Amino acid sequence: MEHSDQSQSKSTWSNNSSRKPWVRKHPVASIVFLVFGLPILALTLFFTLRPYLSTFDRADQGELSNSMSSPTGEYTAELYGVPYGGAAGGVTIWVNVRKTADTDSSEAKSIYRAEFHGGNHLEWESDNTLRIENWSEYSNETVTLNINEEIYDGWGWACSSLRTKEQYVRCLTPES
Fold it and tell me: What torsion do the CA atoms of 131, 136, 137, 142 make, to the nearest 10 degrees?
């Protein structure tokens, strides 16, 4: 009888210990996962999903460096420089197009984003076609865009973004 009490108490003890949460059984592993695993997972998800959730909007950042009206005066193209990264960073060039009669900047449509290369110039080829020059001796991201149908993204994020698919007919990148 004594033997069966011992085996019964052992089985009760083992059942109780197996009911302990994994976190209590492995506190060091849990802490290591929380301190290292979750931040790594969060950063991986952020950088993986960021291009797909990107908006093609400069959100009123940067300084206006050039502005030019279309040949008929219906549209105005505005070139902005948006600094990033502090002292070691750079400048992103944005080109917005808006109807000249709309003075509200929220009505502007972004059609171009790329790294600043040094030589910038806007030139209207027709009322709906804008040539944007952005070049240096090492790089050239000059492009001619139909302002109603095309955008250019030097980073390529807008072309794969689910949020901007309805804003353009054709998206151009440095590879295309």
Answer: -20
